[in-house]
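User: Amidohydrolase-related domain-containing protein, SAR92 clade bacterium:
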Amino acid sequence: MNQQSAHQVNRTIHDADSHISEYDGWIEGYASEYVRANLDEPFFRVEKVPQLKPLVDQAHNRLAGNDPAMTEHLKSDIFGSEGKRNIIGAYGAVNNIERTDALDIAGINKQLVFPGLVFVSRFARSNDEKVVWGGCDAMNRAMVDFCSSDSDRLQAVGYLSLRDPVKALQEAKKAIKIGIKAFWMTSDAVDGRAPSHIAYDPIWAVLQEAGVPITLHIGSGAKLIDDYRNTGVKRELAPESMNIETTSPKDLPVLHHSIERWLACMIYDGVLERFPKLKIGLVELGSNWLPACMSNLDIGAAELGRFDLGLRKLSLKPSEYMQRQVKATPLHFEDAGWVMRNVGKDMLMFNTDYPHPEGGKDPFGAFERSLDAVQATSEELDSFYSKNFEALLGL
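Assistant: Predicted structure for Amidohydrolase-related domain-containing protein:
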């Protein structure tokens, strides 16, 4: 049941990771005819995944008002496994009025709302630039529309390609104007340009001025290549594992590799020096790796960068840029308390990954146990549950 944890009492809670579940027909109404006709892969269709069809039929039946008992059941256990296993059918997964109600039930004030990964994967890496920019425009308008019913609480995350710096600047301005509150971007190098290439500086300037952060989310970087999955033996999955998520055990230990490369570029090449108010959110990428990353960045600058004149211009240690400008979401099964003790109180943010099952059945309880284990202070808890989220979004 939706019972409050001790940490929720008299405390503002913001959620730094949630999603809209993309369903058949959702994005088509926002995409141009050209985009619809020229995607590298066709739009996702449930009927092509027989295992999902009964779940989606159940969801549509409930949303049509034909199963009020199921609706009440989902509301009574927002993070319960039954609803989140069927991420289309979870309460508030596709209906924005339900989403606001879900926040009230869970005791959450504001929530970052990301798209799913389905449509982005079909346009973001296309060789056709008209598809890339048309896809960005469609995604950004769709996310703003979903969040528009409660735009103060539902913070829309859009997508921004860096394929063409000039067009990216135009899209960023347009998306910010209509209500995008954060941009999901790739952490890979694009068309031979480092993430810190000076051609992107006008984009960072616009984002800094608007208080709109960069977010890197699972899926931002290239995944583990298939060669590492080829063992000569077919991988077997339990029947209950079936959902739209595709993260595997081999992915988890390496999710952050492209993120660390991205951070090294943005810090060593002076982007965070030039744009001291530009904020970065690392979402659904774990946090156990952060202490080592910060230490390695400091060592790299101090020991291997002694003769690099660019590094000499940095006014802070690399780890200090991280503490000043980077926020991250720990996974609920990580030891968030241990991470906080090693990176400081100003980086970690509460998150649920709603309605995806990876967020766990009891995110409040999981984080409470971890933070209590290190005797987190009231100030540290406020930073984790709300202040760092507010700093990320310039609230």
